[in-house]
Amino acid sequence: MGTEIAMSEHLTQPGETGGWPKLKVSYRTDPEKIAALLPPGLEPSGDPIVQINVYCVPILGEPEYGVSTKIGASFNGIDGLFCVGMGIDQEAAIFISQELNGQPKFPCNISFYRIGEYVEAVCEHQGYTFMEFRGRSNGSVNPDGGEVEENEWWIKSSRQIGGAEGEYDFPPHVVRVHSVSEPVEIEDLSGDLVLRESPWDPYTELLPMREQVSAQLVRSAHKSRDITNAGPLDPDAFWPFADTIGGSRWPGERGGPRNWRP
Known about the structure:
CATH class of the domain at 17-144 and 183-220: Mainly Beta
Number of strands: 12
Strand order of the largest sheet: 1-3-4-5-10-11-12
Distance between the termini: 71 Å
CATH superfamily of the domain at 17-144 and 183-220: Acetoacetate decarboxylase-like
Number of helices: 4
Radius of gyration: 19 Å
Structural class: mainly beta
CATH topology of the domain at 17-144 and 183-220: Acetoacetate decarboxylase-like
Shape: globular
Helix content: under 10%
Strand content: over 45%
């Protein structure tokens, strides 16, 4: 028997960062909570499901650990997912992503690993551990072989220099991120998502978990990704949504949490 191991095209060399699966956990929340987070012009779409993804991918020549939070939303009749926030552990990628495309990134410490069948992810921001998942693999699930098309919504805007009330240097526009991928490996997980109180990542207040829906490890072959300007939002209606917590889309006050200090 030869020593060579046949590898399908989506697999990578042992230890390769680019081959890591994504941890995808979803839970049900209250419909009115999702509606409250969407700026006018974006509408709730589908069931009131929150999708949390934890990943490790190579960015700028090194591993980037990240955690994203998305909720169902449509814009101009197109269904998609509104990104509430994306915490990452690379400073370099945060600010340029915000400046160019409005991607709601913020700094976050993330531990994500697998040992045997055990999977763990822990996310911490500003000294608060706000999300934890611990579970075990139940085994592989056969992908259906079809491509997955996804639209993700970001918002790019810039308030006027000097902070004049209701004025912008660049009024709010919706950014469309259209991607096509094909799941090639899926594992169902048994385990519990835990959301903890944090003023900087207010899941328990603004997107409370009513029921955990699913947890999976997913590896995908990425086919395409296009980032475009999808169109403007009403600048006056958007103004109450302009101030956020850090680079996220959580509602904030002068860049921090609202009313979090006595």
